Amino acid sequence: MTVDALTDVAGVRVGHATRTGGGWLTGTTVVLAPEGGAVAAVDVRGGGPGTKETDALDPRNVVEKVEAIVLTGGSAYGLDAASGVMAWLEEQGRGVRVGPDPRHVVPVVPAACVFDLGRGGDFRARPDAATGRAAVEDAAASDVGAVVPEGCVGAGTGTVVGAMKGGVGTASSVLPSGVTVAALVVVNAMGSVLDAGTGVLYGELFQGSVDRPSAPVHEAASRRLAETAAKNAPPLLNTTLAVVATDAVLSKAQAQKVAGTAHDGIARAVRPVHMLNDGDTVFALATGAVPLDAGHPLALNDVLAAGADVVTRAIVRAVRAAGSVAGPGGVWPSYTELYGRPAAPGD
Description:
The chain is α+β, with helices and mostly antiparallel strands. It has helices spanning 75-78, 81-91, 129-141, 215-231, 252-269, 300-321, 335-339; strands spanning 13-21, 24-32, 38-44, 51-52, 65-66, 68-72, 96-97, 105-106, 111-113, 160-161, 164-165, 167-174, 180-187, 241-248, 281-290, 325-327, 330-332.
C-alpha cells in the first residue's frame, strides 16, 4: 500500500518540527535515510542558495552515502538545525566511520534553507540545533511508510509563494519496472504558482485535469492578492527546496542527474524560477534496493522523468494543503481560501 509520499520509498522517514506563535513562524523538516545511509547528490539552480555540506555530494568526492537531509527555515541562521541532527546521528553511531571504534563517526548532513525571517513577527525566532533534533526524532519515531503531514508544517511553516501562503507537499510514483520515485518539496518561491489570467495552478496543467475557477472567483482572488502584496513587505529571498528519493540502485553521478532533471518539475509549477534571489535546491537520494535493467542502457530515463513529475505534483499539493496566515509578520491567504477546494470526481 502506498501513501503518495516520500515515505513510499522503503525505509525513508520524514519528520517535522514546527514553531508558531510568540513571534515564531518557522520550522525544520528532516528526511531520514534507512540505517546505513543512501547515495545522495544535489543540484543548485537558484542564484541565492543557503546550503551546508553540498560539496560532499559532488560525485568526484569521497562521501558515498548520507544518513539524513535537512530542509529548514531561518535562512542561513537556520542551517544550525543540521547540528542537532548530527548530534542525534552520532548518538546512534550513524555516519562516516573515521576511527577504530564504531562510535567514531562523522555524520554528513547536507542541508538547505528557505528565507522566512520575521514572518512570525520576530526576526530572531528561527530554527536552531534543538529544532533539528526535534525534527529528526520525529522522523525516527514514525512508522515505515507513514503518511507525511503537508502544508504549513516543518520547513513549510513560514513559506510564501508570490503573495500566497506556501508549504510542504509530497508525492510518489511506482514505475512499471517496480522502481519507486517520490518527492518532498518546500515551496517558498519569488515566482507565482498560478496563472494570472485564470487562477489555474501551473502545476495542474501537467496532471491531466484542471479545476478552472469561475471568473468572479478569480477576480475576487486577484484583488485580494494585489491588496496583500501591497501591504506586506516585499520578499527579499525565496527558495524552493526538494528531496527526490528512489529505491533504485544509482551511482552518485546518476543521482546528480536525477536532482538536475527534477528542477524541471519546479519550472513547470513555478514561474519565474531560478532567479538571483531564489535559492532553488534539489537533493536526490537512492536507497539501492531495486536494480535498474542492465540490458536497457537508458533505463535511468524513466526515473528522471518520474522525478520531475512527482516534484510538480508535490508543489501542487503543498499549495493546496497550506492554510492562510495572518499575524504581526504579515498576511498570506492560502490558495484554498482564495479559490476553494477542487471539485470532487463526478461533481
